[in-house]
Amino acid sequence: MRNIIKVTTLSLVAAGTLYAGGYKIPETSLNAIALSAANVAHSHGAENAYSNPANMVFMENKQNIEADLIYIGLDPVRYKSNDGKTDINAKKETFLLPSLHYVSKKLGNNARVGLSIVVPGGLSKRWNDSPAVEKAKEFTLKVIEINPSAAFKINDKLGVAVGFRIVSTTGIVKSSAAISRDMTGDSIDMGYNLALAYKPTKALEIGLTYRSNVDLTVEGNAKLYIGNAKVYDGGSSVTVPLPATIDAAVAYTFPTQTTVEFVYERVNWSAYKNLDFNYVSNSPTILKPYFDDPIAKEWKDTNVYRLGITQQMEKYTLMAGAVKDESPVPNKSLGFELPDSDSVSVSGGVRYQYSKNLNVGFAALYSMRDTRKTTNDNDVDGEFSNSNVLIMSAGLGYKF
Questions:
Q1: Which of 274, 269, 294 is nearest to 213 (CA)?
Q2: Mean pLDDT, consecutive 10-residue segments, the chain of 400 residues?
Q3: How many separate domains does the chain show?
Q4: Contact between 193 and 210 (Cβ < 8 Å)
């Protein structure tokens, strides 16, 4: 029972921080999906408001708006125990997510403002079979970010920007075992972002962005059961880090109007050292040692490598990309709520200039995740496979 209680706590707290890791969604626009998010240095549309707001000062002096509808499909993850007695699959998950980006005209000679409303991450994992239902019968996280920003042109080659991150989080966690749970929580938290765009020549572009750590102060209600007896129904809270990220990018445009961009991303997941879950003072004394004691997580910093290629034509813009991503989750923290692994993704897309001011497009990205074997304190003694992800987007951009 002690192990079940600890796993229950682990799953709920993880729900508050799964903005990134294996289910991070940096592809928050059509171009970002088509280029595997290698659109930090070279970008000229409204998605600049999120990908690199410093680029806004180099855009044509018109208002720009982009609206995208993004589809995400998660394959049904398979778990097979090492002893061969368990072979189960999670449910297939599908989502439709909107994104919106806006960039203003020039304010004076050297400033512009932008606004993005995006879904930068999230998770949904549901299982029907034991032992998974004992830890994560349902594990859902929804994240929405509102990101206003302002950019300033220092000179004809250099722009800088600052923005504010307003992150809304809601989560649902359910499990079914000797000790069961039904938990919900939400929060609104703040952070900031900084950006730089440097264009030393017409062909060479350099971008640098930083997104700050945001502490997700999730609060909500928890119902805990031992057998059929409800032993707790009250407040619960936890604070966990949404880690800082830094992206450094360089892009070069050849005379053929072919642009190649490389992005190196560093994610500071090592800030996620432990979990410390809290209940209000009237929680059952028998549960306090198990739910309130900090649990070591010790996630690691990760490196992400992105490559994007853009071919500009008279009416069409063709895009392709690839990305290699690392999992931050060590073996001892791996569980049914986040069966994460390293991945390689490929992507592509096209935009069509329908008229002088209107363009439409389509993009897709397929992420292939490694099979992962582990034995750990979460009672996971087996192999996770079939964790692949498909992302598609259709959208339009308009300037006026």
A1: 269
A2: 34 33 68 96 94 97 96 87 86 86 95 93 72 72 90 97 93 75 86 98 97 86 81 80 91 98 94 75 56 71 96 96 91 76 93 96 93 76 87 95
A3: 1
A4: yes
pLDDT in tens, 327-372: 888 888 777 777 778 889 999 999 999 999 999 999 999 999 888 8
Gap between the Cα atoms of 212 and 20, Å rounded? 13
**AA letter at 301:** D
Of 107, 117, 186, the closest CA to residue 153 belongs to: 107
Task: Please report which residue ranges of the chain form alpha helices under DSSP H.
Answer: 2-15, 30-34, 48-51, 133-136, 288-291
Q: Quick: pLDDT tens for 244-268.
A: 999 999 999 999 999 999 999 999 9
Confirm if 174 and 138 have CB atoms less than 8 A apart.
yes
363 beta partners: 349, 393
DSSP state of 24: B
Range of the domain at 391: 2-399
Three-state DSSP at 126 gives strand
Taken in order 50, 365, 67, 59, is the CA torsion positive or negative? positive
Q: Which two tokens stand for residue 200?
A: 């030393």
CATH code at position 203: 2.40.160.60
**CA–CA gap between residue 263 and residue 104 (Å, rounded):** 26
pLDDT score recorded for residue 90: 83
Residue by residue, DSSP assigns 180-208 as: EEEEEEEEEEEEEEEEEEE-SSSSEEEEE
d(CA 368, CA 351): 25
